[in-house]
From TrEMBL:
This is MrfA-like Zn-binding domain-containing protein. Coiled coil: none annotated. It holds the Pfam family MZB. The chain crosses the membrane at residues 6-28, 40-60, 113-133, 161-178, 190-208. Residues 483-504 are annotated as: Disordered. Keywords: Membrane, Transmembrane, Transmembrane helix. It comes from the Bacteria. Residues 876-961 form the MrfA-like Zn-binding domain. InterPro entries: MZB.
Length: 993
């Protein structure tokens, strides 16, 4: 058969190889997330055709120049006798083909088939190597050899044009078809024939290297989002949103690559730093911290100030590995919340998931991991164990504080004590070479008060050379849109469940339009419900699969903006899509969080003047030690390690006035033991001091959002009657954070408080427990309360100060706060996200406990308030919302209330009172009192907001005074006696303008 038709052999070989190639192509396309096998085939083409063509050309040239050299074995190809290489300096290689001609003169073997087979063998070898060892991931701007072949060259994303390139090889293949291949001179054509054949096969594979759904998959990989700008907004409009484009920000110049040798070494060792375009300052800072002269230049601590997502995670991953490789120690990463989610984002840049350990409270730490990631609450619980376990403590080589600015108010006050406790232990018993790294945003402008903030919160004294400022850049142009659920919302798609939350509806629209989207779930969204929603299919994929893991990988972003985020937008958004190369515009859809219409007003200002908007900063409040918090952490610190009084003052920088009474009280209650100690100080001078150690057998600290020790448990009563502790709260704040029928979230799940068994918080404190149940009601609730102040005195440590030509003055007061809660107001999203507010739902009045606190009284002149009976209540409602945006405290940590005829000492005063809603106060009032300019600005913002509201209604509208929290604020506001007109009138009179 072969003898009859020798030309069949090459054709069969060609057909088999082509079938194999197409089979492999289909398998690769199916497996790759990008649905694209071009990277494989272009590499195969380059590595097969390149060397083979060189060899064929070389052999051909030899024969042209002098056929004799050919016969001396200088050519590397098969001939009729086999392969014989006899190069001068190498041992001869001799692969003989069995004699082609038998003794009877008949052909026995076909050496030309060997020659024909070589290109196929080389091709197959390259192909298999590439399949087993895929090409290393390259930065998209690095050229890949032959990649141009997989371009589309004007063929609208099709590679079929490559088929045209097949014409010459196929013509030659047919022209030289066997039997020419095996006969006479044409024998030499076998090698080029084989070469042309594999080139043709590879080209065919390239032409079909793009899977049918590659377009969507490419967007998912973020390489090139589809279509013209504006499409994204159109897609959101199509889903029923009113889309207002607030601003478009151009991209800035790309950062130059670092020239420092240390940073370059890191870039070479961890190429993802370059690929993901991590800010060069971050790489240099890490290189510097672990470099040979780290301690000479500055200490072992670094404070890094950068916009969000500038590459902190990647840089941190490198720091963790350097700690592991160079110091052979572990990194302790402390995050504000959700350590598991943080670890999931960090893990891709570490060698494997086992590199991270997530310690849990009261469970021993696994010391084999590279990094321990935990939240501050867990750290607080773990510190006692660490204190008892010097070996574990000595394993910590790097302490990382992530997102320093996320701590505010009560959490900041607890954080401060915690960071100092850890530092004290590490100094005494930790590793010599231990380092620390703190990440925070770059808070420009002294209004932010950032220097005072970090120096209060952290135990480090950063020198200028230890502070690293990452330049503000925008890798891509950004378009910021405000999304509002429109009245013309489409009816819900019957195939897909109604999301019930506008952010989910926006997310689905963005993904369906082919944009790889980053989704930051709003804090009030139930994550179980959101998880169910994300399982639905959009364009053949589960929605959850098409989310970007990180803002740096996202072509678009959906974000709910509340009081805490709105002034941080510049930092939050600047680095969107950083790791992507081709991104025409990073699209951001903002949804204003319900509850604070001032946020919505500010976003409108972003549209008017982005420059001015981005200059505004939020004032950071570090919180100050108040006796209950000092007491709690002092007990813990003394359990971890005994101390002398001077040492306590030194490490914690507590004032004697606060520390001494607490020590006295604890000693009297036999919770700590005292003794006199004598020791030599650093100058070898004998000192006598009092030493303290804890004698409390068991002490369990409260959670970090509480201040006291006698806490009330909020217990989940499940359907089967099982009970689970959800959280613990200060009883003084029970009506504020756990009022009856409140809907709240813990760890992303929604719960509703049960009606109280008593009508006073005093009874609840005695019982020590409140119950709640799981709910899937997406309602938001606000309590209707009536605040009362008693025993109010002017704080004589502060002077009264006049603002603005004496029309207004302020004075710090000490007072006892209590409130009566009479009902709630609920807000529920309707279909496609529009919100509907309920009428107040009344309940039996509940009395809070009274607690002492600090306040700031802004006195108004009586004549300014004449004929404006609703002004004070209206200003208070609006100022509370302005304050929540411009001052960094939780919204339930502060109250602005109207005081009419308030008895202060022996006088009656009228004005506004800004109150610290934590027992004893957390320093918020001091922070406000220190900054007259801030107060004046807050009042001016309130005036402008109310004056500029488009409603022009005397009573205001939901975008100004008629928001749920403003209405719920007092009985006065529930009865609809708020007046925008009077508020503006009085503020104008007081402030001018
Ligand atoms: Zn209005």
């Amino acid at each position: 058969m072969i003898a009859a038709a020798p030309w069949l052999v090459p054709l069969v070989v060609f057909a088999v190889a082509l079938a194999l190639a197409l089979g492999i192509n289909a398998a690769v396309i199916a497996r790759r997330p990008t649905r694209d096998s071009a990277a494989l085939w272009t590499a195969v083409l380059v590595w097969t055709a390149g060397p083979l063509a060189a060899l064929v050309l070389y052999a051909w040239t030899l024969q042209l120049v002098d056929a004799a050299w050919w016969h001396r074995g200088w050519h590397p190809l098969f001939d009729a006798t086999g392969l014989r290489l006899a190069l001068p300096w190498l041992p001869p290689l001799d692969l003989r083909v069995p004699s082609p001609v038998g003794p009877d003169g008949l052909r026995l073997a076909h050496p030309e088939w060997w020659a024909l087979a070589i290109p196929f063998v080389v091709w197959l070898a390259v192909l298999l190597t590439r399949l087993v060892l895929p090409a290393p991931v390259r930065a998209p701007d690095q050229a890949r050899p032959g990649a141009w072949l997989a371009g589309s060259a004007g063929f609208e994303n099709s590679r079929r044009w490559v088929l045209w390139a097949l014409v010459p090889p196929l013509l030659l293949l047919l022209l030289w078809s066997a039997p020419d291949l095996g006969e006479g001179l044409a024998q030499e054509r076998a090698a080029p024939w084989g070469l042309l054949a594999v080139v043709a096969i590879t080209l065919i594979a390239i032409a079909f290297s793009r899977g049918p759904d590659a377009a969507a998959a490419t967007d998912q990989a973020g390489a090139a989002p589809p279509a013209a700008p504006g499409d994204w907004a159109a897609a959101l409009r199509g889903a029923g949103f009113a889309v207002q484009t607030l601003c478009r920000l151009p991209a800035t110049e790309a950062a130059p690559e670092s020239r420092e040798p240390g940073a370059r070494a890191l870039l070479d060792q961890w190429p993802f730093l370059r690929e993901r375009r991590v800010a060069p300052e971050l790489i240099e800072a890490v290189a510097d911290l672990f470099g040979p002269d780290a301690t000479r230049r500055g200490g072992r601590n670094r404070l890094i100030l950068a916009a969000d997502d500038a590459g902190q995670l990647e840089a941190l991953a490198v720091a963790i590995q350097l700690t592991h490789l160079r110091l052979e120690l572990v990194t302790l990463v402390v995050v504000p919340q959700a350590p598991a989610a943080f670890a999931a984002r960090l893990a891709p840049w570490l060698p494997g998931p086992e590199a991270i350990h997530l310690p849990r409270a009261a469970v021993p730490i696994d010391s084999t991991a590279m990094a321990w990631v935990l939240d501050v609450g867990t750290l607080s619980e773990q510190l006692a164990d660490l204190g008892d376990n010097p070996v574990l403590l000595g394993r910590i080589g790097l302490t990382v504080w992530f997102d320093l600015d996320a701590y505010s108010g009560v959490r900041a006050a607890n954080f401060w004590a915690l960071s100092h406790r850890l530092d004290r232990l590490l100094r005494a018993r930790g590793a010599q070479e231990a380092r620390s790294l703190t990440f925070a945003r770059d808070h420009r402008g002294h209004e932010a008060n950032f220097a005072a903030f970090w120096s209060q919160l952290l135990p480090y004294d950063y020198q200028p050379e230890e502070r690293v400022l990452v330049a503000r850049r925008r890798p891509h142009p950004i378009a910021i849109h405000l999304l509002e659920p429109g009245a013309d919302s489409r009816p819900p798609d019957p195939a897909n469940p109604d999301p019930g939350d506008p952010s989910l509806a926006a997310l689905r629209a963005s993904v369906a339009a082919g944009w790889r989207t980053r989704f930051d779930p709003p804090p009030t969204l139930d994550l179980v419900r959101a998880g169910d929603f994300l399982q639905q299919q959009v364009g053949g994929h589960r929605l959850a699969e098409r989310l970007a893991p990180d803002p740096a990988d996202a072509a678009a972003r959906i974000l709910e903006v509340g009081a805490a985020q709105v002034l941080a937008l510049a930092d939050l958004l600047a680095q969107g899509g950083r790791a992507l190369t081709a991104l025409p515009t990073h699209q951001v859809g903002l949804l204003a969080a319900p509850g604070n219409p001032y946020v919505r007003h500010l976003l409108a200002q972003l549209a008017q003047d982005p420059e001015a908007f981005f200059r505004r900063v939020r004032r950071l409040v570090p919180g100050v030690p108040q006796p209950a918090i000092v007491r709690r952490h002092l007990l813990l610190a003394l359990r971890e390690m005994e101390a002398v009084a001077s040492g306590l003052l030194d490490t914690f920088q507590w004032r004697d006035a606060i520390l001494d009474p607490v020590l006295e009280e604890l000693a009297n209650r036999h919770e700590i033991a005292r003794r006199d100690v004598r020791f030599l100080d650093d100058n070898l001078v004998l000192k006598v001091d009092t030493g303290y150690r804890s004698s409390a057998a068991q002490y369990r600290p409260g959670p970090l959002d509480t201040v006291g020790d006698q806490l009330v448990s909020v217990v989940l009563r499940e359907a089967g009657g099982a009970l689970a502790l959800l959280q613990r709260i200060d009883p003084e704040r029970a009506t504020i954070v756990a009022y009856p029928r409140r809907v709240f979230q813990v760890a992303g799940q929604s719960y509703r408080m049960n009606p109280w068994p008593a009508t006073s918080a005093a009874a609840i404190r005695r019982a020590g427990v409140l119950y709640c149940t799981r709910t899937d009601d997406p309602a938001l609730t606000w309590r209707v309360s009536e605040p009362r102040l008693r025993r109010t005195q002017v704080d004589t440590r502060h002077n009264q100060v006049f603002l603005d030509q004496g029309g207004l003055n302020k004075v710090v007061i000490q007072t006892w706060y209590e409130e009566e809660v009479t009902g709630i107001i609920e807000v529920r999203p309707e279909r496609h996200g529009a919100l509907r507010r309920s009428e107040p739902l009344w309940g039996e009045p509940i009395e809070s406990l009274a607690f002492p606190t600090q306040g700031l009284l802004l006195r108004f002149l009586a004549e300014d308030l004449d004929e404006a009976p609703a002004a004070l209540h209206s200003i208070a409602a609006a100022l509370g919302q302005v304050l929540a945006v411009h001052v960094g405290v939780e919204e339930d940590a502060v109250l602005v209330m109207a005081a009419q005829g308030l008895k202060v000492g022996r006088r009656r005063e009228s004005g506004l009172v800004i109150l610290d809603l934590h027992p004893q106060g957390l320093g918020l009032i001091d922070a406000l009192n220190d900054d007259d300019d801030l107060l004046r600005r807050l009042l001016a913002y309130t005036r402008d907001w109310l004056a500029e509201c488009p409603c022009a209604a005397a009573a205001g509208c939901p975008l100004c005074l008629q928001s749920p929290p403003a209405i719920a604020a007092t009985r006065h506001s529930v009865e609809r006696r708020l007046s925008r007109g009077e508020a503006v009138e009085v503020l104008r009179r007081v402030l001018g303008g």
